Amino acid sequence: MISSSPQNKPKSPKFSWQKIIKKYENPHLWRSIWQLTNTLVPYFALLYLMYRSLFISYWVTVLLSVLAAGFLVRIFIIFHDCGHGSFFKSQLANDLCGFITGVLVFTPYYHWWHSHARHHATSGDLDRRGIGDVWTMTVEEYLKSPFWKRFGYRFSRHPVGLLVLGPTYYFLIRNRFYPPRAGHRERLSVHMTNLAIVTVAAWVGLWIGFKEYLLIQLPVIVVSATAGVWLFYVQHQFDGAYWERHGKWDYVDQAIKGSSFYKLPKILQWFTGNIGFHHIHHLSPRIPNYYLEKVHRASTIFKKVKPITLLVSLRSLRFRLWDEKGQKLVSFRFLKSLRKKKQEPSKKFTE
After folding, report:
1. What is the pTM of this model?
2. Cβ–Cβ contacts within 10 Å for residue 348, how many?
3. Model confidence over 9-52: pLDDT tens digits?
């Protein structure tokens, strides 16, 4: 398994970030238990209310699903921390909690962790893309690609593909399978998670009805999947993002420059488990989510990181390709400007 722990990375000469974060890397048992309680209890209560609302109006059910989806996003953050070994000191406790929360978020624990560890180890590295990240092509790669690949890429970056169809497909279908080269642990993780999901669905379906189960579970999964993928997308696709070839890639730079500080309203910050402090998380994934804001405030170094607000983050939807020459993310319109520049010399010659 690929390790994403910063202890395995060379020390950056820029600043002694290890000393700043070290005291925050130990999870607090009662804080973790309290977070589990204030997340799981409201979530299951909302699912029950959604069931009762089916006898009133499905519009009420849909409205409640949005709130339930917020708690499911928070459950995913707990699942995510367990994968990093940062939610409990005990690895066994992390693995057990990770498996259970993984069933709730329709994601196999070990299988997901393998690709996510790769994401932390390669984020912002142009030569090591493709696992655990959002598909990002350079301008040159896109221009050299055949039509079918460009078409697929455009669809994957379109808001409908990126935030509606893609997330739903990923959590409901793709997570049910493992890649051909997956190890025994990953394959077992997928099989056990699938079995647990089917068992829970069958039990609940026999209790309240399979149609009712789908009417409750599907909107919650779809909304939470969309929100989760959006968070992941905007954490690395923003104005000023960092991408470098492997020879120039730097661990601290990819954390501070390549992972956004997504400054959300307090209520959204709570539901998303402080994951908006993503620059801190990538600097040290061993920090529990409930300490991320404290670390950010612990040093003026982190305070200098430019925040991205909710409104500003919407601009990230126009970013499609990485321009290596300009060292920035660009839209597809950028390609038109390139074509015009190529045509200008020939026009001047004819004139």
Report:
1. 0.90
2. 8
3. 444 444 567 788 888 999 999 999 999 999 999 999 999 999 99
The three-class DSSP label of residue 59 is helix
| 339 three-class SS | helix
- What are 11's two structure tokens? 């020390």
Quote the CA–CA distance of 69 and 46 in Å, as a whole number.
Answer: 10
- d(CA 230, CA 163) in angstroms, rounded, equals 7
Give residue-wise pLDDT tens across range 62-79: 999 999 999 999 999 999
Alpha-carbon distance of 325 to 323, in angstroms, equals: 6
Contact 126, 94 (CB under 8 A): no
Q: Which residue has the tokens 């259970």?
A: 100
Distance (Å, whole) CA 61 – CA 195: 27
Return the amino acid letter for 116.
H
Distance CA 256, CA 9 (A): 15
